[in-house]
Known about the structure:
Elements (H helix, E strand, L loop, with lengths): L2 H11 L13 E5 L9 H10 L4 H8 L6 E4 L8 H12 L7 E5 L7 H12 L5 E7 L7 H4 L3 E4 L7 H11 L5 H7 L4 H14 L5
Parallel strand pairs: 1-4, 1-5, 2-3, 3-4
Helix pairs in contact: 4-5, 7-8
Amino acid sequence: xNIELALEFDSQMLTQExxxxxxxxxxxxxxxxxxxxxxxxxxxxxxxxxxPDKESEQTLFAKGSHPDILLFPDxxxxxKVEDARKIVxxxxxxxxxxxxxxxxxxxxxxxxxxxxLLLKTxxxxxxxxxxxxxxxxxxxxxxxxxxxxxxxxxxxxxxxDTELSKAISHWQLPWQVDNLKMIIPAGEGILYKMIxxxxxxxxxxx
Length: 206
């Protein structure tokens, strides 16, 4: 996950703001397919928690260098016991700012041994600790983790021609609206991933 791009995508394409009332509790899991883009809710909510008016903290977050935020993007690898220990040690310290945020993309990558190390921390977190997680494979998330989290199901969303035209213009994509409609069946996740590929590779895969 590219946090800076995800935040930019949020500001341009995610028209529905996250409801404040849904932030009850300190551990949250967003579930949805790769098309739905559940992972996009993580930076969206983290940015809200940091405070939109705190520009310096928002800048550090976007650049991936905020000292109070641990990010575990999906790199195709399992989340290891060493990662779980790092989380426990990190959140045990007082944050430099107002809170610690632990962001985990596709927490279904976490095995039982690593999860067991985190259960107490997730179940009884300090008041300044939030866990924001996503999954594209809800059925693979350990039940012991699910039972300790507030689960949010991300709805499937289609884009209007106007929204796709806005994306083409903003990110200077080399396609027309009709081209995008043919390859984006639905969902924020697939559009974000296409934009990310284009920005990183300079091309889009059909």
